[in-house]
Amino acid sequence: MGLFDRFRRRAPGGPAGVSARLEGALAKRRLRGWQPPLENINSLIASGGPRLLARSRELVVTNGYAANACEAFAANLVGDGIKPSSLIEESTLRDSVQQLWLAWTDEADADGLTDFYGLQAMVAREMFVAGECFVRMRPRRTEDGLLVPMQLQLLQSEMLPFEKTETAANGNRIRCGIEFDGIGRRLAYHFRRRHPGDSTDQGAVIPETVRVPAEDVLHIYRPIDAGQIRGLPHVAPAMVRLFLLDQYDDAELDRKKTAAMFAGFITKTAPEDPMMGESEADLDGAAMASLEPGTMQVLLPGEDVKFSSPADVGGGYEAFQYRTLLSVSASLGLPYHLVTGDVRQANYSSLRAELVEFRRRIGQLQHGVMAHQLCRPIWRRWLETAVLSGALDIGNPAVARPVQWIPPRWDWVDPLKDIQAQVLAMEAGITSRRKVVEATGYDVEEVDRENAADVKRVADLGLSYRASPGETQGARATPAARPDPGDGTGEDTGDGSASTDPATEQE
């Protein structure tokens, strides 16, 4: 009997039919109450987006685990910046483009608070908290004194109203604040002029929204479903657990605090009798009896003392916290130790396996979201603006458009073994030196220029080092051997034999 035949049954009094045998599709006793609505993700975001966004922002501000996870997410996604490496073949033009870009990055922020790579970190945090961030490319006047008359302005998700879903005057559809044409292309964004939650920005009565052309706006978000038009907070799957765990921790802390306030309870034979340790001045009720460490108090006849023995949470508190935070970490897609800072139960193998999987996920976001949605469009607009303003002497901006975006380097778990593996891969032709250098977060051409300058400086000054940047052979990890005074043909290897290996010979 085939697999398909196993799922067939003959309906009573009718032709053969196919019955669903997937457990998740059954409506038996266990799943009778599970009837989720079949809604599109855009409908879910439009209806619950504002509340989800407000809760997400509060959680990242008030919950330590959420705040730590947000910083870890941004630090691993962009680090010190995803940087361009121009692929222009002509070296002089490539150097001039790279130098102008580097100088412009300090002027990129329209608010003047950080540079272009700091803006990348802010976008990454917004992706974690709000699921999306808007970047408006603002042209500037020549008299503003910028190297390239262009700056970037970040807009939060609240600036684009979720509830603005209507038909525009020109017949286009507006969905969640985004205007689409007849074939689904984005034409404009209808932003609020002011942030709805900023009580410090109360100006004159002005229209609620303003239309901004789509070519001036970058919408940075990670689409998780086909046709998704707005972002979903990265922290959303873990929000409920983090909120309830925070409440549980607060309740447990209050319980401990309250229990610690009561040392004991005294039973008196009569209300007017003084308590042990109570003086005559205390009889007005202004003071309580006190116990000093190590005090042995003799009680009066008929008095009894019962010491407080509050119920303890027992040994399950730590295990419960660990399992809950492990579930939170899995929901966030972050390693447990990055969320909690707890590495007590980790070892080298578990950390390495965890980081390898995490880096694959981060690599998807770096190339599919940050580089594709943010870096490349800005590079193209920046080149066009630089050519039009005369900052770059290029006839056609398309000549300088080829570029490779280099993500920040990953710190090695075992530096020696990782570097040795990279050297072996280069020697075997599995990878190129360019790829190895770019994996460290640097531009190979910049590294080569620095190495050439180091070699020239060493030669001009008559210096000699054990490992020179100009050597063609790999540097040795062992100290350089001294020549054998009794043998002018080789070097002392330490075991009485002479070595003529050219890789260990000294100049």
| Intertermini distance | 79 Å
Summed over residues and divided by their number, the pLDDT gives a mean of: 81
Summarize the helix and strand pattern as letters.
HEEHHEHHEEEEEEEEHEEHHHEHHHEE
Strand content: 5-15%
Low-confidence stretches: 6-17, 472-483, 485-507
Name the structural class. alpha+beta
The total count of helices amounts to: 12
Strand adjacency order, main sheet: 6-7-8-9-10
**Principal-axes shape call:** globular
Oligomer: single chain
Query: Helix content range of the residues, please?
Result: 25-40%
Alpha-carbon Rg, integer: 34 Å
Short description:
The chain has 507 residues and is α+β, with helices and mostly antiparallel strands. Helices cover 38% and strands 13% of the residues. Strand 6 (166-167) and strand 7 form a beta hairpin.
Could you explain how this protein is built, in words?
The chain is α+β, with helices and mostly antiparallel strands and 507 residues long. Among the domains are: 38-157 and 214-263 and 317-408, no CATH class; 410-470, no CATH class. It is 38% helix and 13% strand. The protein contains twelve helices and 16 strands. The protein has helices spanning 3-6, 41-62, 64-77, 91-105, 116-129, 239-261, 316-332, 336-340, 348-389, 415-427, 433-439, 444-461; strands at 8-10, 16-18, 83-86, 132-139, 150-155, 166-167, 173-175, 178-180, 186-192, 209-213, 217-221, 264-267, 304-307, 403-406, 491-492, 498-499. The strands form six sheets. The chain has a five-stranded antiparallel sheet, with no helix packed on it. Strands 5-4-11 form a three-stranded antiparallel sheet, covered by helices on one side. A two-stranded antiparallel ribbon has the order 1-2. The chain starts with a helix and ends in an 8-residue tail after the last strand. 20% of the residues are buried. Residues 6-17, 472-483 and 485-507 have low confidence and may be disordered.
